[in-house]
Structure formats: C-alpha cells, structure tokens
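Much of the work behind modern protein science is quiet bookkeeping, done one molecule at a time. Below is the pair of lines this work produces for a single protein:

***
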Amino acid sequence: MRLRLSEADAAFREEMRAFFTTQVPERIRSVVAERRELSKDDIVETQRILNAAGLAVPAWPAEWGGRGWTSLQKHIWHEEMQLANVPAPLAFNTSMVGPVIATFGSQEQKERFLPATANIDIWWSQGFSEPDAGSDLASLRTAAVRDGDHYVVNGQKTWTTLGQYGDWIFTLVRTDPDAPKKQMGISFLLIDMTSPGLTVRPIKLIDGGQEVNEVFFEDVRVPVGNLVGEENKGWTYAKFLLGNERVGVAPVGSTKSVLARAKQLAKDRLDDPFVAARFAELETELLALELTALRVVANSADGKPHPASSVLKLRGTQLQQAVTELLVDLAGPGGVASGADDGSAVPQWARVATPRYLNYRKASIYGGSNEVQRQIIAGTILGL
C-alpha cells in the first residue's frame, strides 16, 4: 500500500519542516539529537517560540490558541517536530491540564490559567499516582476536606515527573471517602506548589539524576475556586485527560530519528550481515508502525482516538525500547561508561546509551501500561 498526501497536506508538511528546522535554535535541537538532558530553560524557550507562532497548542479550542487542524495535520505537526529533534510542548501543560481546564473549567479558570499554560508561564506538575495507587489509580487516598471557602489537603503523590520545576500541580483528591465506588468521590484540584505545607522531595535515580519526585501535602489549604468542574466528578476529568495523553503515543518520528543516527554511527559495521539485518528489521517495523498511525489518524472521529491507538502505544514503545537496546549493543563496553566526563575517550553517544536504555523501560508503563493496552486490543479490536 502506498499513501500519498494531498497537495495541501504536503505543503503543510513542508511548512512545519521549515519552521522547526529554522526557528528553533540548533543548540536546543542538538541536545535532543545527541540524547542529552534538556534543561528547564531549553524546554521553556522552545515552547515560547512555538506558542508565539501558534504552534504550541493546536488541538485546543481556537479561542485559546487552537488551530482547528485535521487529525492528519496534527499528526504531521507532531511527526515533523520529532524528526527535527524539537522538544515537544510540555505535555503536563498542553495535552493534560490545558484541555481539562478548557473543557470543564470555569470561565475565570480559563482566563486565569490557559494563556499562562500555553506559554509555560506556569509549569504544571501532575499529581495522580500515589505509593499505593499507580495503575490502580482509583485507590488514591490523598484527602481534601471542605473547610469553609477552602479544601484542606493531606496525603502524598509520587513519581511526579519534573516536579522540581513545578509552579502548580493538578491533583486528584478524595473528597467523599464514603462513596459507594472507589471511582466516585474523587475531585480535580489545582494547587499552588508554593502553598504552606506542600513539600517536594526528589527520588534519586540509579544514574544520580532527578527526573521524578514525591509530593507531600500537610494541611495544605486550597481555595474552593481551584476546583475544576464539579466536586466528586474528578474521575471523569481524569479519564478525559488520560485520553488526551495517549494521543500521539507512538513516537514514530523520534524513533526514526534515533535509528537514523544509530545507523550513521554504525556505518563501518553495516557489512556485517547480522548488524545490517537488525537495522533492516527495525526500519521495516517502523514503516509498518507509521502506516498504522496514518490509518488510525484517518479513522479517528470527533477528536476521539481510534481503538487501534492501543496498538500504536504497545508497538511504539516496544520499538522505542528496541532502538535504545541497539545503541547499547553498538556501544559495547563503552556503554558502561555512563559516569565518564567529557574528557573520556568514550564518545558521548556511547556514554548515554545505557542510561537511556534503562530510562525507557518506563515507556511500557506510562500512558497506560502495555498489559492494559493488550486487554483493550483483545476486547475492542479482536472481540475476545
């Protein structure tokens, strides 16, 4: 099967490609290409460049910066961004809390938060997972008790990605502990992270880095005006948020970019039939994934992901992990030199290969674990 873009969509792709490769600084894109850690300043600068051009939140309502694009145009925007090694807009802002506020928030909340969220003047953190409520999120125990014009929040959140940068945190809290079902009695609160009683504690990773955090709430007072939507309807808003989070779950563009760089690094070894066969297999699998992504885009309606998006999540993360594993194998013994400094004889790409491989084990968990995706595929696609 051969797919061809219309002239209008082909022109749109060229427009996106030209913007991403000329307007986002090369020094930032090189960090992504070389698989180094982006700084907070890199992420903020990139998103503000995109927002100024109307390219940060294209899926939002037009009133708040959306572009009214087709599903295919949004797919092209996302893929060209990845191929150009441009950092994606901060997901916590643009594909999580932003759409929730735009859909369920009060007019006052929209005016207060949406422009600042799109421009990353507010850096949002996600307060969902807890020590005993991860995949079983409905078991969360962080409590919010109404006290006049405030809620008093007590509890703990964990695995809060980049929470050390957070200005505000969107949080699921239990407001009715006596609800007949655990999915009920949950509310969606917006909490200022400078509030008294709120503490962020880093979770140190095996490589010494700080990507995730714990967040503690001790009698944190939150104005009732920071409740999104209705009290005890937070589970509905959380499902809506997670649906948005899973859009674009197959990182085809970024995986293609990493694989192309790996092939360049291995150019002296491509005469080895085993190495060549491994590249050929991954390239073929990525092509199949890309065609599947296009089919899903073509059959998605009303902004709702097609059930086959679970296939993209499952296979996309598997291939993402397979490419990181390939880089570890190409690095050989140099792959264990992750602690070496820039004076080392081991090249930078080899030093980061193993940490990236280990870090991307998370890809098969976040956004709905691959086990959950298999259940969705079995029930909604295969009818089992």
